[in-house]
Write a structure and sequence with these properties.
Elements lengths: L1 H18 L4 H4 L1 H16 L7 H14 L12 E4 L2 E4 H18 L3 H17 L3 H17 L4 H20 L13 H8 L1 H25 L2 H17 L14 H14 L6
Antiparallel strand pairs: 1-2
């Protein structure tokens, strides 16, 4: 089960938060989100004929909504919902990558290029360097791998690389929180073994997805594996949220939606 892989970093994150005195009301949320979202994803697998274009359009729309709300230190990444705040990119990018792969396989050039450009552009403006980097790598792979005209695929790839570089040259100045961006640093202060286990657990998630994609010849799994690999690598800097290990519902929601879509073979085009 793909969901089992994210339980390991989740448990290690909980250990780190407990040792640091983080209130139970915070560290208990991640396992609750995993249980609820996984159940919802399993129920969602019964639904078929989900338009890939609708998934992509909805992803871009939700990211665009972040610019309507108040910023935090000049940063627009979040949607305020009853009970919690959602990082739109973390929640929708895995789904958008799955949709882009389906559309690229059918050479839906306009949808792929417009979807890629709009999402990458908004991530750069938010700014969200880690999510843009994680989004860029699998999308570059599927663009180059797709049957698009050479001039089109390489021009869009260059724009994607440029936007990613710009986002890393203009990083936000938000202060990292111990139980989100700083969870790996927290584990390192507590125990070298916990820190090494944390790193291995984060790498376990993308490795499992890539291996599954190769074994089953399912490119969508490999694409998502690349996304989480880059997201985890960026998180090692201590500046960006650590998926599944750090506090936050958004990465767990994004992962659950991805599982739902990857298991829905009838995702319509």
């Amino acid at each position: 089960m793909p969901t089992a892989a994210i339980l390991v970093p989740c448990v290690l994150g909980i250990v780190g938060m407990i040792n640091d005195g983080i209130p139970v009301s915070i560290w208990m949320q991640n396992p609750i989100y995993i249980a609820v979202f996984t159940f919802a994803a399993c129920m969602g697998m019964r639904i078929v004929r989900i338009p890939a274009r609708a998934v992509l359009a909805a992803s871009a729309f939700l990211i665009a909504l972040t610019f309507l709300g108040s910023d935090i230190g000049g940063v627009h990444r979040w949607l305020s919902l009853p009970g919690f705040t959602l990082n739109a990119g973390a929640a929708v990018l895995p789904a958008s990558i799955v949709a882009l792969r389906r559309l690229a396989d059918e050479r839906r050039t306009v949808w792929c290029l417009c979807g890629t450009a709009s999402i990458a552009g908004m991530l750069c403006m938010q700014p969200d360097a880690s999510q843009l980097l994680a989004f860029a790598l699998p999308v570059l792979v599927l663009l180059i791998d797709g049957g698009f005209h050479r001039a089109v695929k390489w021009s869009v790839s260059c724009v994607l690389v440029l936007l990613t570089l710009l986002s890393w040259l203009h990083l936000d100045t938000l202060v990292p929180a111990n139980h989100t961006e700083g969870i790996l640093t927290l584990l390192h202060k507590q125990s070298v073994l916990l820190y090494l286990a944390g790193i291995l657990s984060l790498l376990l998630v993308p490795a499992g997805l890539v291996i599954r994609g190769i074994r089953e010849n399912r490119k969508c799994w490999t694409d998502i594996g690349l996304y989480y690999a880059m997201l985890s690598i960026a998180a090692f800097s201590g500046r960006f949220p650590v998926p599944f290990m750090g506090y936050g519902a958004s990465p767990i929601l994004g992962y659950s939606i991805m599982i739902w879509l990857c298991h829905t073979d009838d995702l319509s085009l």
